[in-house]
Sequence to fold (166 residues):
Amino acid sequence: MAINESFIIEVQEEAKSSRKLLERVPEKSFDWKPNEKSMLLSRLASHVAEIPGWVHFTLDYNEIDFGKFDYKPPVINTVKDLLDIQEKNLNLALESFKNAKDEVFFQNWTMRNNEQVYFTLPKIAVLRSFAFNHMYHHRGQLTVYLRLLDIPLPGIYGPTADDSMM
Fold:
């Protein structure tokens, strides 16, 4: 099995779990956050929806320079907006994976802000830590937000306390 094939399976399976979670985000609570230091619910949810797109930035480029990157957060007004953003980024990730030969995964990738280099790692390590693990982390945060709002949680890796079989 080629490296990209393994990643494609993982990203498709994880996207299903993320989608189930994003579908539960209550629009009426988009401006809610559990603490002053926390992100707004809408910002956290949109971050989860955007992260699959980081695969494209990792595989198709050799660095990201925040000093030159003109990021504009997406405007989120509805859950449909979240799902559309996730779908767009998932498709971008899948296309990048499909085009990536094994040797691409071992090329170095750098995160920087102008001259300040944060790290340089092989792309395969960046995908795991910067993209996938980062997304799992924020998806976990999103489950806490939803729990605090008393929103029933979907199963991600198995049933939750909200499932009728529990």
Observations:
- The chain has one domain: 3-148.
- Helices lie at 3-23, 41-50, 54-59, 79-99, 123-148.
- The first strand starts at residue 63 and ends at 65.
